Structure formats: C-alpha cells, structure tokens
C-alpha cells in the first residue's frame, strides 16, 4: 500500500465515525477559507493524532463514515476552454476566477457538477448541482447552472467552448469538528485527457486542506508547529502544469516540484 494511503487510513480508523448529515451540520462550509499543505507521512501521523486525541479541548475530530467506510475514492474531471482560460486566470491571480469540474464519488456512484469561485474577501465559494445517471456533465442543465452562477456571482457570461482537460483520482478521509473540516488526500493520480499522459504524486505525501469560516484554523496552527507552511497548490493547476511542461507554473513551481518529483 502507498505510504500516504496507509497513513490516511490509520488516521480515519483512529477517529470516531460520524455520518454525512453530522458533517454537513457541523461544517458544510460551501463558503470557506482554506489552505493546502503537502505533509510528509510521519508528520501527518503526528498531526492526525493531535486532532483525534480524546483530550483535545472541545473534543476530538471525527471522521466521515458512509456505509461503514471512512476513506473514499474520488475522481474529478476538470473542464477548461481551448486556451485554458481558468488555468491562466488562476496563475495570474485574477479577481474573477473560477473552476469547473465533474466529481464522481466512486464508492457511492454519486456525481456532482461543481463551480468554484473566489469570493469578495478571498474565500472559496462552491456551487454544485447533482448529476443523474446518464446526464452529460456539459449538457443543457449543467451549462444553464454554470451560466446562472457566473452571471449572478460575477456578472459575466459563461464560456461557450468547454472541453475535458484533466482527470484526477485519489483517496480521501475527511476529519471534522465544529466549524472546521480537514480533507486528507493520498494516492493522487492525474491524467491529461488531451495527451493521455499520466503523472502520480509523491506517495510519501498527504495533501491536507484545511477549511474553516475563519482565516486560520486550528489545523493550520498545528501544521505550522510542525514546521510546515501552506503551499501554493491546487490539484487542477498543479497537475496541469506538471503534465504540460510548456505551461508556466509561476508561483506554483516549488509546490509542483514537491508534489510531482518525477515531473521536476
């Protein structure tokens, strides 16, 4: 088993299981602030133990559990324009930027069409709409949803030319406390849907994302105590710049080199 996958599974089994409804009630956080960290497995083990310690003030973090499972397989297809508008808007840190993806929860078969935006204060705002079996991710209903979200939020028109850019797959455990959610991803594999090229993230790293309604979560403070700093990294932009050497990674380059050492 990949070391990062093993570490994430152990963290999940050490935590009290809670159902999805409780996670949504305690920390759904569709609008949130967050940071990403590339965490070595030994540091992750210590970090997870601190979060799930029963002596933690306010109680230990719990783990999302659905049908007896505490870690889950995710697959996302990311969409972009032919000139990679969403990639370049994020690389240049433009104010009105967005991402478009279809997410498949492989263990339950659930599919969601999702649009992620940047809010006025720098927070991430996620809008999503379920996809029914047989629905095309870029069919009339999802395109109408995309147009509505972008017009309502930014006052802009949705791009008319969209295509599949890359696919990402990984395993995830979600830890939750009141107002805080931490996703722990391992075994990240990314495939360029244009060229067919595939790249794997370092199996000794866990991608941790902290999510909270405030600027700094307890998890951020703990990770900083372990000597880690937030990384300039997202799965879509980081993977695409690693898969296509002709693209300039810019401020993501250090994190891309860490996450995908074979590309570096």
UniProtKB/TrEMBL annotation:
InterPro entries: VTC_domain. CDD domains: PolyPPase_VTC_like (cd07750). Residues 68-243 form the VTC domain. It comes from the Bacteria. This is Polyphosphate polymerase domain-containing protein.
